[in-house]
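Give me structure tokens for this 156-residue protein.
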Amino acid sequence: MIIIFTDGAAKGNPGPGGYGAVLKFGRHRKELSEGFRLTTNNRMELLAVIRALQELKTTEFPVQIYSDSKYVVDAIEKGWLWSWQKKGFKDKKNPDLWLRYIPLHLKYKPKLIWVKGHAGNPENERCDQLAVAAAERPNLPADLGYEQSLASGPIQ
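Here you go.
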């Protein structure tokens, strides 16, 4: 089984943000993080899941993703995502990221599990550290999906 932990952070929400992910398979471990100059916490939570799944090289093993984001976990596990998709993501936030997530979901069929944030889970805490540190890096790039949505009006 492939185990993934993810977390996202944004200072100011919106503000500088980042994500962190830890991927574990047997004795293998990989950490991912990236920051952006202006974004939201929910975008970083979802992007952490997307980037972690993009790192996978096989569909041979089941995938479990642990996240402290009810937004991400509930959208997927309660099936809201598929309803949003049918309605063209009308009045929903972050459609650019959800559209990136869907093919990854169909390919890897991950099970998402909610974990309480800041509750002492070492891997969740590590992801939080990675996300916060990524948000604090200098010269952060743009989260183009978010910044373009600001230019075109409210996030849809």
